[in-house]
Inverse folding.
């Protein structure tokens, strides 16, 4: 049986990923690996240099445990997928790549919303990477929603969603598509009332994974 390892930087993402895996990957064995200090350590100059090595160690553990591929579920670390895959010797996939492709195909005005600066820049870079491959040159604007991450980290999902929805509704009139940079923001997508698509990463990412198997 094919085995896929999901590598997370926040425990909050594991339940929705497992729900989608159960729906979309019914004949695949899954395993989760978690380092819940990575997002914080990316902002710490003393520890940020350790991130790639820690992720590589987890990917090697996944391979040793029989994984045929690893999927990163955090946009903050997407840029490390390719070099780690090359060294470890199994595919390391990015859950947000499919979302970026949909955004590029939807229209030239893309608004990226994040709740952490460490996620905003990698997501914007990923969209530019995928746009270049598609021969497109979108206009990308981005915003980090202050206070939203702190709210959800403290268990206040309602405040998180209210802040993110406000940002979605503020940016939507001048965008063809909204991209939510973090999987943990998905609940806000359902709450926003706008006339443009609001994209999240989990479902399109796991659908692409399923199609590749």
């Amino acid at each position: 049986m094919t085995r896929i390892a999901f590598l997370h930087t926040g425990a909050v993402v594991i339940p929705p990923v497992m729900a989608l895996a159960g729906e979309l990957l019914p004949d695949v064995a899954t395993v989760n690996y978690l380092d819940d200090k990575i997002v914080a350590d990316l902002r710490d100059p003393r520890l940020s240099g350790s991130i790639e090595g820690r992720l590589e160690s987890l990917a090697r553990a996944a391979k040793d445990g029989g994984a045929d591929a690893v999927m990163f579920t955090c946009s903050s670390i997407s840029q490390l997928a390719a070099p780690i895959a090359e060294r470890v010797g199994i595919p390391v996939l990015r859950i947000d790549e499919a979302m970026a492709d949909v955004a590029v195909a939807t229209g030239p005005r893309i608004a990226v919303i994040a709740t952490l600066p460490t996620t905003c820049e990698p997501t914007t870079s990923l969209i530019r990477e995928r746009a270049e491959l598609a021969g497109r040159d979108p206009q990308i604007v981005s915003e980090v929603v202050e206070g939203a991450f702190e709210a959800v980290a403290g268990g206040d999902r309602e405040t998180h969603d209210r802040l993110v929805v406000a940002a979605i509704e503020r940016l939507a009139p001048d965008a063809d598509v909204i991209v939510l940079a973090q999987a943990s923001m998905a609940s806000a997508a359902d709450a926003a009332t706008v006339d443009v698509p609001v994209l999240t990463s989990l479902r399109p990412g796991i659908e692409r994974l399923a199609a590749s198997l």
